[in-house]
Each structure stands twice: as C-alpha cells, then as structure tokens.
Amino acid sequence: MKKLLVTIGLLLIVIGLVITRKDYLIEVYDTYISHKPKITTLDNKNEYYRENNYLFVQNTDDFSPKNKQELINVYYTIINSGVDTFTFKCNEEYTSCVKDVKDLANDQAQLSDINNYVHPFNGFAHIETEYDSLGRVTVNIVKSYTNEKIEMINKKVDELYPQLVNENDTTYNNIKRVHDYIINNTIYDSNRSDNGIINYESDIAYGPLFQGYAICGGYSDLMELFLIRMGVNCYKISSDDHVWNALYYDGKWLHLDLTWDDPVSSDGRQYLEYNYFLIDTPKLLYLETSQHTFNQDHYLELKEA
Q1: φ, ψ for residue 112 (rounded to 5)?
Q2: In terms of CATH architecture, what is 2-22+147-302?
Q3: Residue ranges of the chain that CATH labels 3.10.620
Q4: What sections of the chain are H helices per DSSP?
Q5: Is the pTM of this model over 0.85?
Q6: What is the DSSP letter of 122?
Q7: Three-class SS of residue 302?
C-alpha cells in the first residue's frame, strides 16, 4: 500500500496509489488429530511475551475455553507466548467449541488481527490448527522472524536507540525522531507490492534496517520495536491489505502510519510527511478510507464513539 507524489512543473499533486497486498500470508489447515495429544500448561513464555491485555484480547491461564471470547484469548496467549506448538482442550460445557475452532482457524482476517497484538518477534508467518471431535486442539506456529534475524535486528536497534531516543526529551519528540529516521533511510518496495517481485525482506523489520526497503509490514514492525523499548503501549492495526501502528499517547489511542508518511514520487525525490503522525480515528478516515478502513470491533481502543 502506498501513495504516489507526482510533480508537474512547480505544482505538487498528491495522488493515492492503491496497492493490494496481504502483509500476513497465513495458510490454515484443519485436520483431525489421529492421536491423543498431551494437554499442557503454558509455562514456557519467552522474553518477548507481553503482559498487555486489551479490549479484544486478553492473556489467560485457563486453557479450557468455555466460550468464543475465551477461545480467542487462548489463541492470543499461545501466539503471545512465543511457543511453536501448544495443545489445549475445550471445556465440555462449550458445545460449539469445535465449530468455533474451525471457524477461527479458517478466518485469516481475525487470526491476523489477533497476531497484531503480540510482539513482532512472536508473530506468525504461518499458523496451523489441528483438532478432533473431542475438543482437543493443537496450534502449530511458524514465526515471521528466525533467531538469527532477531539477533541481528536487536543488535542494530541497540546501536540506533541512544542516537534516536533521548530520555530527557519528550515522548513526542522521541517518536518523531524514530519516525523520521526510518522514513529517511527506507525506500518503499514497489516491486514487491506492485509486481510480487521479492528482492528484499521488506515485509519485516530486517528490510528497512539492513536493506533499505520496506512495505507496510516492515515499516510497522520496525516502528513497533522502538515503541516497545520506549515503554509505549502499542500494537499493529490492519485493514484488508495494509498495516500500520496504533499507540497510546497523551491519554488516548492514536494512529501512526509510516508507510503513508513516506510517499513514492514520480520525480525520484524522497519525501517525509506527517499527515498520518499521531492522529485519531476520525481524522484517519477523513484523510483516506480505501486502505485504512479497519474492523473497529477488533481494535476497540481505536473505535469511534
């Protein structure tokens, strides 16, 4: 997703260029479990587990869901914990559990929305659900980031952080410096978004950090890594074919979209904008709706009153 700046003579004309792309390619397979898996407790959360609870998803210690919301919370907790596989069992009172598991496993949009609430390093590139008629459910996860990539990214962020974030400065200015740095050092990967040509890992933070190219997944992941280190409550938010950042600032939840603040230009020049810098939902939807219309029931902190 991107917008295009076209310069004609001395007149600057801003044109929105619609790019359709899924930032989370999730294939889901529902298969019956032929064996009886051991039901476990989730006590091996990794360092990227986040304690955060939100209106749509909450961490849970109860892995015997009794309704749809508890089932969603189980999925969120599993993904958030950073495990590769986990088995749980539906509560016997939850008679529609198997049906709801199957529906959720086939609902790419809802799984992506749940995934947006976890740390980027625990987020999945692929998730697979297995279940049986007795309500035993196994979730298998392939993450978006390898351990090698995580180590490289952390080292680079460690290097950049003291240059961009000043503890004696305001949160606003620190966010702005990170926003500006990412945009000024990143080119939008039009080949990938427009033509499906993959030359860079632009859909994750590695692309903008080490290759200088990003699509919306790369911009938003890298921005989130800095926000988390700054102690800012945040998560990603997405529409059908775009993803950006949401964060809690100055007593309210706001949007931050680096992709749209880094427009592609026909004259080859690099531009830096602030149209999508810390804005509320009414302003976001006033500015642009084709790519920013999101499920407000899945991102309740950003829901219009």
Answers
A1: -65, -40
A2: Roll (3.10)
A3: 2-22+147-302
A4: 68-81, 97-105, 108-115, 147-164, 171-184, 190-195, 206, 216-229, 281-287
A5: yes
A6: G
A7: helix
